[in-house]
Specification:
It is built from 14 helices and two strands, in the order H-H-H-H-H-H-H-H-H-H-H-H-H-E-E-H. It is mainly α. Helix 4 (about 55-65) packs across helix 10, helix 11 runs antiparallel to helix 12 and helix 13 (about 290-300) crosses helix 14 (about 315-345). It comes from Lichtheimia ramosa.
């Protein structure tokens, strides 16, 4: 299992070269990139937006088309949690049954009232753990509520079979094509040979989950690049590139019209700065995947098209702010240069 197949979809290689270049070195951005949450922290929900489990799933779904990997890993992890709870509940039930002390007979020398008192005391001591509800099991109205659902053996079998039918069998709803055929065949053989049903997900899916975890680890730099260095979705980027080209077409048309119509005074051409700046801004933000205004003014990152998360991860905000200032400065510089060029050209009426 040492040779893990890389995902067949994803960003081109030059993006990864740029990522490794950004994350190496001793600059402030490089240090912040190395301090970002790891994959395991995100899977355990120990990180905050935009580097969180929800956004990881969105990136896998919309950009890499590998969301099935995360679905499978989470389902198997949930099965393991349920299995541990099932074992714990079964053990606790067995221990409670074995530890209940038998009622000792009352001495025959006691009177009738003394024998009755002795029996009640023994009964109370034997069932004290059942008769006294804990703080966590008492609801707001004083009623008893169980803190966790009882996981039965049948429920475990059904859940594990659901995972098998959803990911492993041929032509399944979310067939996990990234698993080696030998691994899928081994899982199928275990289900075929089991006559009483399988309740232990560790025995069946542990190797497959480990393999999928390594595939997710291979996609991790892509996710960090999309969410720690960018704040736009793919659809937003494509839309901005198209809008930027259209705005530049309008701006250039206005400027050339003013030049070839020889409109005076010359500073009238400055009105072309608006569509040109919008075009440059949209084009550069679309190419870089970063909207400076959204970061600096609103502190948001786009999850899906026009749906946003507040940037709450401590190390992400400084990275995006620094890049936003650079992008905004480049937009202003290009716009100023274009306006200077258009204003400097002599007018000539055709």
């Amino acid at each position: 299992m040492s040779d893990i197949a890389r995902p067949t979809t994803g960003p081109p290689g030059f993006l990864m070269k740029r990522w490794h270049k950004c994350s190496s070195g001793n600059t402030k951005t490089s240090v912040l990139l190395r301090e970002l949450p790891s994959l395991d922290q995100v899977l355990r929900r120990q990180s905050r937006p935009p580097v969180c489990l929800y956004n990881f799933y969105i990136v896998l779904r919309d950009r890499l088309e590998l969301e099935t990997l995360l679905d499978f890993w989470l389902d198997v992890q949930q099965a393991k949690v349920l299995y541990k709870r099932h074992i714990k509940q079964s053990t606790k039930k067995s221990n409670t049954r074995n530890m209940t002390p038998p009622l000792s007979p009352a001495p025959t020398t006691m009177s009738h009232d003394q024998q009755l008192t002795h029996s009640l005391l023994m009964l109370a001591s034997g069932n004290s753990s059942v008769a006294r509800p804990s703080v966590g099991t008492v609801g707001s109205h004083g009623s008893n509520n169980t803190t966790s659902t009882v996981v039965t053996r049948a429920a475990m079998q059904e859940f594990i079979e659901h995972i098998y039918l959803r990911y492993i069998v041929p032509n399944a709803e979310k067939e996990l094509m990234h698993l080696p055929l030998s691994m899928r065949d081994a899982i199928a053989d275990q289900f075929a040979s089991s006559k009483t049903g399988i309740t232990d997900p560790f025995m069946v899916f542990n190797d497959a989950q480990h393999y999928v975890h390594q595939l997710l680890q291979a996609t991790w730099p892509y996710f960090l690049r999309y969410k720690a260095l960018m704040n736009l979705t793919l659809n937003q980027q494509l839309g901005r590139i198209a809008a930027g080209l259209a705005a530049l077409l309008v701006g250039f048309s206005v400027e050339f019209s003013l030049i070839f119509l020889n409109i005076q005074p010359w500073h009238t051409r400055i009105w072309g700065v608006l569509p040109i700046f919008v075009g440059v801004y949209c084009l550069i933000s679309g190419l870089t995947g970063l909207d400076p205004i959204w970061v600096l003014a609103f502190n948001v990152s786009e999850t899906t098209t026009f749906h946003f998360n507040r940037i709450q991860q401590p190390n992400v905000r400084p990275i995006l702010s620094e890049r936003s200032i650079v992008v905004l400065a480049v937009c202003l510089l290009i716009t100023i240069l274009l306006i200077i060029i258009f204003c400097a050209l002599p007018g000539k009426r055709l």
